[in-house]
Write a structure and sequence with these properties.
about 220 residues, mainly alpha
Length: about 220
Amino acid sequence: MLLRALGDSSWLVRQAAAGSLGQLGQASVEVMPQIATALVAALGDSSWLVRQAAAGSLGQLGNASEQVVSALVGVLSDSEWRVRQEAASSLGQLEIEDEAQLRTVLIALNRRLHDRDDDVRRAALTAIRRLLDGRQIPGYRWVPIREQQRRARLRKRIGWAVLGLGLVVLPLCSDGVVNGQLDFAAGWVRVVGGLAGLASLAAGVDLWLAHRRRPPWDR
């Protein structure tokens, strides 16, 4: 009956059915694949409330099949933040044994740490901690978001410092050569001035790129 209700014309009925299926837990092992398939299909419902309920139920059921995991990873990019949040939370509830599959999930969740919504970022962080639980996954390097922010700030300060140094040194070196005050080392002065100019240019480009790449929560 609940499975048939997922195809009802009313989104309220579909939402209630999707949410109720998650309450079955492991009580219906024989029909679990059928339930999981129906809920995965509901992730594509036109109503975000139905998609949210379906994502939450998949986490409650604990079915970590490739079909379920791939579907939940897919809705991490849903246009509605509540669906993304529910998908992240559900992924954190699954017991994923395959390391390749787990690595894919962790990378997808790591991207959600830069989501524009606070609740999605929090859910993704909680899910990552649950899934890792002290495990070392080859090909995945966990860097806490606070550490990422610290490194970004340090990189920005160094960039501004190099940019400022280049802007100061380059005119001084050029003036020295033009006025004949450093004729004995004109070659070295040109080299130093050129390097300072290149470093200044590189620092400016890096700062511009860093500004373009920074996540929404840092703007």
